[in-house]
Design a protein that fits this description.
The complex is a heterodimer of chains A (about 625) and B (about 230).
Chain A lengths: L7 H8 L9 H6 L5 E5 L4 E3 L7 E7 L2 E4 L5 E5 L4 E2 L1 H6 L6 E4 L3 E7 H10 L1 H26 L3 H4 L2 H4 L6 E3 L4 H11 L3 E5 L6 E6 H9 L9 H4 L1 E2 L4 E2 L4 H11 L3 E6 L2 E7 H9 L2 H10 L3 H8 L2 H10 L4 H27 L6 E6 L15 E5 L5 H20 L17 E3 H13 L3 H7 L5 E6 L1 H14 L4 H11 L7 E3 L2 E3 L5 E2 L2 E2 L1 H18 L7 H10 L5 H27 L7 E2 L6 H24 L6
Helix pairs in contact in A: 4-5, 5-24, 5-25, 13-14, 13-16, 14-16, 15-16, 15-24, 16-17, 18-20, 21-22, 22-23, 22-24, 22-25, 23-24, 24-25
Chain B lengths: L7 H10 L4 H7 L15 E8 L9 E10 L2 E3 L4 E4 L10 H4 L3 H5 L4 H12 L3 E4 L2 H16 L7 E3 H8 L15 H7 L10 H20 L14
Parallel strand pairs in B: 1-5, 5-6
Antiparallel strand pairs in B: 1-2, 2-3, 2-4
The chains are: A alpha+beta (about 625), B alpha/beta (about 230).
Chain lengths: ~625, ~230
């Protein structure tokens, strides 16, 4: 026989499972001798959350559960799966709990040996990058899971109650009740027993008017005679939605809320109106009704409250981006209509287009104005003046609405971005066929363009022309790809600092530049390379996957990373709104939980690897 | 039969006082483990011999495999296996263990093999499936090589299996149910196809980890509760 010095039973088992199947035969042959074998009964902890781990556990027989810091199941392991790589690559302590759900036998690879394998075998190392990305996907799935319920439907009565109820004993007169209402500034009183605190009735402003004054009854009239006895009540645990239906259905304006038999508050139609106003649908509706720029601005001031409420209801970053975009579109569209009313009809057809994040349906708070005008070729030089005034009018009104002017002057007020269709075509052709790096960097925003108001056909003609040329514009794509790989996300966090490349530390995380923005740029290159009309980053990633230039797993990872980074950014901005601070994109690491930091680090890792994949797809050495 | 009641360590000391030389003397010089020690603290050596038959006086060890079990971990980095050049013909036993006469030519001398075994066993408890075989062949080899008595503490996974398999009142377990691979199957331990002394030693050590876990329930075991009674 010759003895089985390589322990072929163990070697062959490893060879059947990823990532060991990527190891060369000589490395694989020596691997069994580096292992220890451990046995754990069902229900034992292999890697304990919050504790350090220094081994890679390869499950030989049995089964395990992997649970995250919320004790939610994120993975199940079967023979051939490996555990512990996350702490070995990202650091201790473990955020996950790995425990046996069957009696299990493990091959245990010590940390030092694992590092040697990672260092010497790129494919082996790559596998663990992907594994991390999958766990990351789990974290995103959870966010989206909780966000799938409509925000409005999730608000509970408890959240709506603003103050303790004003109560009064049933034995008093109507005059005493009216005085109490005046003193407390209340439009209703809950009436409780003389010798107990249980609700026996309710009296409102309307009752005093209709049942006392109008009937000519004196102030000494006992309250008992004019109050509504045994009123309809709501339960503290009910949903605002249920209470709303009840009040509308019965035409009730004040609804006492009970916790058991104890009155704890009153919900008024005003409370419900306030809730409804925080809904984006009403906000957009209200924008359409405004007749002046000031009116639009007043309505748009509710935007940050809408975003805050969506974030607190755990809506996804993508959904929130769409809502903010929809509101921004509504505001801009309404202002254009108002401007036309003031300036008179346009001399030739035109289309007002939005650029950048709003064009991609990804607008966040703190976004500045980015827009342009495409004019019909028939426009004469004299006609141009009307459009200059339109641009000035709308831009000024947008400033009034809280959208600051664009630093880079990418606005329709700039004559350079207020052109006839043929001039736009010429500009794009120059960018695509004779690319100059600086010019392309500045022009990239024009490749995220969406019509807002006017003749959308003008925009379609331009967009079709661009997409016909872009897949073949190799040099242009190479320049754009190079730019997309320049803003490298940080490596992670270390002792309260952001750990950038070369060991450099920064106090705050620029979540737009190296995070959201990096993915946006990658997705844009991909979409232009495959001639896809998609604008939204998630849609562009999907288009790149469909065209086969990113594989499905990598596409899913990049989508998850983008969603996660965007979510953290929105949450950061919502917190700034809540605190009354100026909204920005600079996140202080101290505000991030360890869960956030870990997943951001993973997300950044995914973005970096997507950047290096792009760098190799578009070699820049010939530029 | 007074010696029968002596503890293993007393037997070790007695053997050490005899006219013993070389590696055996060194092995015997290290005290055995106290019976009351928690199992987790005790080191074991899972040992497996391939032999030409069952009789240590007539038959020979042709291959040796062993692996230490330390702190509940089977340490493959310290596992060893070798063919023993016994200077005999393997004959028909080759059909069982696969060691052919050609293999034996390239093997190590019995003395060298036994030196390795004793060195690895020092301070450890012998662990084997049907440990009587390993114990007897080691004893016979030591007597021939160093004219001394081999003593050891041992744990027999076959004996433990007999204790663990529930049978009707004193009845013998079903035929074959105590064999190493059948016993492992009961714990869902993997099937190893090879018949190799080192794989068998590893298989025995894995089985012991599972058995010890079952025996301990939620408490903790001492060495005494698993030691072979001979």
């Amino acid at each position: 026989m010759a003895l089985d010095v390589e322990l072929s039973e163990i070697r062959d088992f490893l060879a059947r499972h990823a990532p060991f199947d990527t190891l060369p035969p000589d490395v694989l042959g020596k691997l069994p001798r580096k292992l220890a074998i451990e046995y754990y009964r069902r229900g034992r902890s292999i890697i304990t959350r919050g504790r350090d781990n220094h081994s890679l556990f390869i499950l030989r027989s049995g089964a395990v559960d992997v649970r995250d810091d919320q004790d939610l199941l994120v993975d199940k392991g079967e023979p051939g799966d490996a555990f512990g790589a996350i702490t070995l690559t990202l650091g201790n302590p473990s955020a996950f709990e790995v425990s046996t759900i069957e009696d299990s036998l493990f091959y245990v690879l010590p940390e030092g040996e694992f590092r040697a394998l990672v260092a010497g075998n790129p494919d082996f190392a790559h596998f663990f990058d992907e594994l991390r990305a999958r766990r990351m996907g789990g974290a995103v799935a959870r966010l989206q899971d909780s966000g799938s319920t409509q925000a409005m439907l999730k608000t509970s009565v408890r959240d709506l109650i603003r103050r303790e109820p004003i109560t009064i004993r049933v034995g008093v007169s109507v005059q005493e009740a009216a005085r109490a209402m005046r003193d407390q500034g209340a439009s209703s009183l809950l009436v409780v027993g003389d010798d107990h605190d249980e609700l026996v009735g309710i009296v409102t402003d309307r009752d005093l008017r209709n049942r006392v004054l109008a009937e000519g009854r004196p102030g000494e009239t006992p309250l008992r005679e004019v109050m509504t006895e045994r009123p309809i009540t709501g339960d503290i645990g009910a949903l605002a939605f249920e209470v709303l239906l009840e009040m509308v259905g019965r035409n009730i304006h004040h609804l006492p809320i009970l916790d058991g038999s104890r009155p704890v508050g009153v919900i008024t139609t005003t409370d419900l109106m306030r809730m409804v106003q925080a809904s984006p649908i009403y906000l957009v509706g209200d924008v359409q009704k405004q007749q002046t720029a000031a009116g639009v601005a007043a309505v748009n001031a509710r935007l940050s409250a809408v975003v805050e409420s969506l974030v607190s209801q755990d809506a996804t970053a993508e959904d929130i981006g769409r809502v903010v975009t929809a509101i921004g579109d509504a505001v801009e569209r309404r202002l254009l209509v108002l401007a036309e009313q003031e300036l008179g009809p346009a001399p030739v057809p035109y289309v007002w287009v939005t650029l950048g994040s709003r064009a991609r349906l990804e607008q966040a708070l703190a976004a500045d104005q980015d827009h342009a005008l495409i004019l019909d070729n028939a426009a004469t030089d004299a006609d141009l003046d009307w459009f200059a005034r339109l641009a000035e009018w709308v831009t000024a009104a947008l400033v009034e609405c809280g959208y600051p002017r664009c630093d880079g002057d990418v606005m329709a007020t700039n004559p350079q971005w207020r052109m006839r269709l043929r001039d736009w075509k010429a500009a794009f052709t120059t960018w695509l066929t004779e690319p100059v790096p600086d010019a392309i960097l500045r022009a990239s925003i024009f490749f995220d363009m969406r019509p807002i108001h006017g003749d959308v056909g003008l925009h379609a003609k331009l967009a079709n022309g661009i997409l016909k040329q872009s897949p073949d514009a190799r040099l242009f794509l190479a320049h754009l790809a190079k730019a997309a790989t320049l803003n490298e996300p940080p490596l992670g966090f270390f002792k309260g600092f952001v750990l950038a490349k070369e060991g450099e530390h920064r106090d705050t995380l620029d979540i737009k530049r190296g995070g959201v923005g990096a993915v946006v740029e990658l997705a844009r290159v991909h979409a232009l390379a495959v001639g896809s009309p998609a604008l939204n980053t998630q849609a562009r990633i999907a288009a790149a996957v469909a065209a086969g230039i990113i594989n499905e797993d990598k596409g899913a990872d990049l989508s998850d990373a983008f969603e996660y980074i965007s979510y953290v950014r929105l949450r950061h901005q919502a917190a700034q709104v809540r605190a009354g601070h100026e909204v920005d994109n600079r996140v202080n690491p101290d505000q991030l939980s360890s869960f956030d930091k870990r997943h951001l680090r993973e997300a950044f890792g995914i973005v970096r690897s997507a950047q290096s994949a792009m760098a190799s797809r578009y070699p820049t050495n010939f530029m | 039969m007074a010696w029968f009641r002596r503890t293993a360590d007393e037997r070790r000391q007695r053997a050490l006082r005899g006219s013993v030389r070389g590696p055996l003397a060194e092995y015997l010089a290290t005290p055995f483990q106290a019976d009351h020690r928690p199992l987790a603290e005790v080191e074991f050596l899972a040992l497996d011999y391939e032999t030409t038959g069952m009789d240590p006086d007539r038959d020979h060890v042709v291959a040796v495999g062993f692996v230490p079990l330390v702190g509940g971990r089977i340490e493959l980095s310290r596992a060893r296996s070798f063919v023993v050049a016994a200077g005999v013909e393997v004959g028909r036993s080759a059909t069982v263990h696969g060691v052919t006469d050609d293999d034996l030519v390239g093997g190590v001398a019995l003395e060298q093999a036994m030196e390795e075994v004793l060195a690895a066993l020092t301070g450890r408890v012998l662990l084997a499936h049907f440990a009587t075989l390993e114990r007897r062949f080691t004893r016979a080899a030591c007597a021939r090589l160093w004219s001394g008595a081999f003593e050891c503490q041992s744990v027999d996974t076959l004996e433990l299996q007999r204790r663990l398999i529930p049978t009707a009142f004193g009845a013998d377990p079903a035929p074959g149910s105590l064999r190493l691979w059948a016993a492992r199957d009961r714990y869902g331990l993997p099937v190893y196809k090879a018949h190799d002394p080192l794989i068998d030693a590893i298989a025995c050590a894995e089985l012991f980890l599972a058995q010890a876990d079952e025996l301990s329930g939620e408490g903790s075991l001492t060495l005494k509760s698993v030691l072979a009674q001979s």
